[in-house]
Amino acid sequence: MGQTMAQLPYHYGVKVRIFPSSRQKQLIKKNSDASRFIYNAMNGMNRELYELRQVKLLISLVLQRIKTLEDRLKRPSTGISNLHGWLNDPDLDSLMKANAIKNYRAAWKLFRQVHHAGTPVFHKKRIAQKYQTSAQYAAQISQPSLYNGSVRLLDKHFVRLPKLGKLRFKGWPSRLLTSDTAIRIGTTTVSMDATGRYYLSMQLGAEQPFVKQLPATKSALGIDLNTENFLTDSQGNVVANPRYYRSIKGRLAKAQRKLSRRARRAKREHRSLRSAANYQRQRVLVANLQRRVANQRKNFLHGLSTTLIKNHELVVAEELRSRNLLKNHALAMSIADVGWRTFLSMLSYKADLYGRRFVAVNPRNTTQTCHACGFIMGTANTAKLTLRDREWTCPHCGTHHVRDHNAAQNILAKGLARA
């Protein structure tokens, strides 16, 4: 069988749009609901177990319940299925159940390691649907590939999945289909977004790189992210901020007000929102507007990050904590609109993909420091620069600075010191 997905040195993700039949849509919903139920059942048992362990005087009934819950959590696949018989339905993917359990345990592991997101919470029932399965390979297969697993490509237009069968898709990268590298499929996610579009996301692994290593450029670049312009680099180039959300803000607000009115009307008439046709039509319209903005932003960030990584051996950026920045209510919308955190993560994984280096540095004093002499504004009886100060002159050496260009040069210097 060779190496497992975790042991493979190179990984790649592919997301394609799929076009299921009516029957396949029913199966996707059924598996999505079951996945959410299993996750919530484990969460409910853990919460009950925590409460029972707080009991000061443990009577036999409490001790018996604690033991029952502990046994179910040790073997949740059989424990939950035996308790809820409908989970044994032949339409449900057994690997979906295994992935739901794995995801719940991973959420606890992440909480213990990071302590930022909090303990796992119950997953609400939403319009969107999602579940995960895994590609398995028979023991007699010596070389796993895209075409011989339980999740496999049939050709460049069709894929086969457990329980769902044959599905048409579009958008697969052609270079992966013609690659000589043996590519293995790992975790596979089937999802439907709020607009009713279905997608298939695959985790791929291989022993060889998915892209050809780029020639060395011996070029280093520092970038300063800001809301005035999207970024300014250490070479003085400026990338304008496209402000995709602001461009449709008024139109989206009008559509959301209309959606709210239709929700109130359905409530007055004692109709559920799921059966209110006018509400559902308007909901899809709002979701389409939001999806369009998200896609535009993602396309912009992908194009820019790929260009920067391909053209420079080293890219240095400031480490930004978007969660903290969003607490500034005057700038929260602008910060959310630019997608800094997504952009930095793209730079990070694309640097690994193309054999480049990406370094994130502490932004402390990068704006206030003169890159020519190292003088820091706010010291030696000088005032700190404010957001209005777009250009300034160093009081120590007299060098005139464009604020963002100077910051980008300081960021590059910090990155070179760490490289």
UniProtKB/TrEMBL annotation:
It comes from the Bacteria. The keyword Zinc applies. Keywords: Coiled coil, DNA recombination, DNA-binding, Metal-binding, Transposition, Zinc. Residues 340-411 form the Cas12f1-like TNB domain. One of its GO terms (biological process) is transposition. Residues 13-52 form the Transposase putative helix-turn-helix domain. Residues 212-328 form the Probable transposase IS891/IS1136/IS1341 domain. Pfam families: Cas12f1-like_TNB, HTH_OrfB_IS605, OrfB_IS605. Signal peptide: none annotated. GO terms for molecular function: DNA binding; metal ion binding. The keyword Membrane does not apply. In the N-terminal section; belongs to the transposase 2 family. In the C-terminal section; belongs to the transposase 35 family. This is Transposase. It comes from Lactiplantibacillus garii.
